[in-house]
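Journal club side-thread
Mid-discussion, someone asked how the predicted structure for our own chain would compare to the paper's figures. Pasting it here so we can look after the session.
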Amino acid sequence: MARRETDPPRELLLLKLLPNLVSILALCAGLTAIRFAIAGNFPMAVLLIGTAAALDGLDGRLARMLKSESAIGAELDSLCDFVNFGVTPALVLYLWGLRPETSLGWIAVLVYAVCCMLRLARFNVGSRQAGQAAEKTVFIGVPSPAGAMLALVPMYLVLALDHAVTLPPALVALWMVAIGALMISRVRTPSLKRITIAADHARYVLVGLVVVVAALLTYPWVTLLALSLAYLAAILGLFLRSLRRTAG
C-alpha cells in the first residue's frame, strides 16, 4: 500500500544501513583498484580486490544479523559484485599483462566480464525462484568473488617469484577465459557457509586461521597462490566424487 501524504514519515534505524554501507565500501575498493592498476601499482590493486571480496562476505551476514535484508540491498550487492569481481579483475589483468596482445587480451576481458554477469544473473534468479534451492552447501559454478581471486593467479605467480618469470599474454588470456567458463559451468564448487567442525576441534581451526592470516601478511603472494591451488584442488575433488556417484 502506498504511503499517504498525511502518514508520518517511516523511521529507520541508522544501524540497519550498515550492510548497504559495507557494499558501497566494497565498490569503492574495487574501483580504486582500477586506479592503482592504471598507476602501475598492481600489488595494491590486488589487495583492494581482496578487500572487496572480504567486504562482500560481510554485508550479507550483517543484513541477516540486523534483520535489515531488502530488495534494494540485494540489487546493490549484485551490482557491486559485477563491478568488483567482473569488471575490475579483468581490467587489472589487462593493464598488467595483456596490453602487448591488445586484441586477444581485450577479447579475454570481454569474455570474463560477460561470464561473471551471467553467473550473477543465474545465482539471483535461482535465489528468487520459489521451490528452487539456493546455493548453500555447494555452489554451482565458481562464485564471482572466488572467480576474481582465481583470475589473478598469474599475478600471484609472477609476484611470488619476484618477476623472475614472464608469462605470455596469450597464456594469461586463456587463463581468464578458463576461469570465466568455470563461473558459468555446472561444476559443483565448495561453499564455506555450511562447513561444520567438531566442537573439540574449534581451537585448532582458530589456530589454523591465525596461521593463514599471518602467512597472508608475511608472504602474501605465495599464500594467495597456495590458497588458489587448494581451492582448485577442492573443485577437482568434488568433480571426481560426482563422477564416481554417476558411475556407481
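Post-session note: The chain has one domain: 15-126+138-247.
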